[in-house]
Design goal:
Elements: H1 10-22, H2 24-39, H3 43-49, H4 55-61, H5 67-78, E1 93-101, E2 104-110, H6 112-132, E3 140-143, E4 151-152, E5 158-161, H7 162-168, H8 170-173, H9 187-190, H10 195-208, E6 213-220, H11 221-244, H12 254-263, H13 269-279, H14 287-291, E7 297-301, H15 310-317, E8 322-323, E9 326-328, E10 333-336, E11 349-351, E12 357-362, E13 389-390, E14 399-405, E15 413-425, E16 428-436, E17 439-441, E18 448-449, H16 450-461, E19 470-479, E20 486-494, H17 506-519, H18 522-529, E21 538-542, H19 546-556, H20 573-580, E22 583-588
Helix pairs in contact: 1-6, 10-11, 10-12, 11-13, 16-17
Length: 603
Amino acid sequence: MLWTSDPNNGERNLQLIEELTINAGQFQQEVLKQILQRNAETDYLSDFLEGHTDKDLFKCKVPVVNYEDIKPYIERIANGEPSRIISEEPISELLTSSGTSGGQPKMMPSTLEELERKTFFYSVLVPVMNKYVSGLDQGKGMYLLFVKPEISTPSGLMARPVLTSYYKSPNFRNRTFNKFNIYTSPDETILCSDSQQSMYCQLLCGLIQRAEVLRVGAVFASAFLRAIKFLESQWEELCSNIRTGQVSDWITDQSCRDSVLRILDRPNSEMADAIGSECGERSWKGIIKRLWPRTKYVDVIVTGSMAQYIPTLDFYSGGLPLVSTMYASSECYFGINLKPLSKPSEVSYTLLPNMAYFEFLPVEGGNEEKSQCNGVLDPKCSALQNETVDLVNVKLGHFYELVVTTFTGLYRYRVGDILMVTGFHNKAPQFRFVHRRNVVLSIDTDKTNEEDLLRAVTKAKLLLVELGCLLTEYTSYADTSSIPGHYVLFWEIQTRGPADNSKLDSTVMEACCSTVEESLDSVYRRCRSRDKSIGPLEIRVVKQGAFDALMDFCVSRGSSVNQYKTPRCIKSKEALELLDSRVVGSFFSSNAPHWQLYQLCPH
């Protein structure tokens, strides 16, 4: 079911949303019917359905799966076997996910047709925004967008992040002109593979066109704040470029230079002085409104793990609305925010029933209170396949894990996102993103789960043996008080003889930090080494007895002493203050971990 739309016909696009949501159940049935009719003879589905396309048989016979279940099929395609293993439509590329398997990014199949579906999805975002913010056709958007590294698999198919795929596609590069959606960044600056040159050139273009900017943003809050931090360190050079009408010599990407010079077409001392005056102030509070005074909102994702950046965004933006417009992943684009000016804590996404076939695994514990120590709901998911609920049958206030069947070869695939039903738009439910299943730490696009963290700590603690020490307890948190944020581990160490953690060998402890980083997955190491979007990992050693005090605190707040387990991630402000008050030593990784593009070896 492929929908096309005119991005300049906002009224018609809003009508499409109404049609989709009024008839959500019918569209979902049609989507599943089309997927099964197309793909019933694929190797994967024929093993279960033997050519049948009945919905009830599909839900009875085809299992709900995790990535490890489908990984062998995807790797066979990456190694050159035909797409019809999972899809009758030719797989055109593999999309690398922020989630990992065996330390490497997961790969999701995609097709050329799916690009059209994403283009439709983007086309309906703008008219929704226009309902709430007027005059967006009277200026431009300063969106800081970037591409990431990609590899060629043995089959010749490219493996790359979903946004890199879209920005490099003809759908983006040859997009229809839309007066409501004009960027300050030339495509050449977005597609530049050097992230530093890309960032510099995009900011330079945004500053030159500052009088025209009506909205600013990036995909994720972390990326936008990284750009602001970059601006803090580079504003004098940027002003110099504007004053002289020349681009810095270190910008060596010729397409970037040429595209910027078309905008920086003359020296402008008056503009350089105005920008310099604002950036030279002691405080950068409200700097976004000061540099781009016509800005109406900040367009970034601030739900899920990105919510930790809201206070910093509020500081820099001067209280501008923070808008999260869409909910999407490498597997599929899911839904849109029909009330984009709602508070970040109240954001809900309406799933569009033509994008994929959606099912939901009920999650137990919807009425549980938040843990006083980790600050998040941690419900357990029931994985019995006959317990899945269709899109239109979910219940208000209930929690579910999202399961998708896509046009690109994923069947009853557990995405791993825990959602809560907050309401309905017509017949289509609206969901609040609660959290990612099993993830304990995230700064940028990294997703570190409890098992990965345990594995890394287990390797690092072996280094304590030469000190005659033993790691007795640990926990962690994502520190985003500075940009870039970084992982913090609290370690309680038992020493030989009288307890004196203050004399720990700094060389060994720094080596522990580095070992943890080297042991984390490739997405973390890429963010840390290439993207510079994560800072050096820190280990804070606490006094002996600190974790006993943490347990006492959690029990005093309602945890059961008999069932208490040390939380591996701390989000409670009070619990963090308790541990910080007992820190006797702090150590940082001195070197960035090794990272290189994952190479899939042919079998």
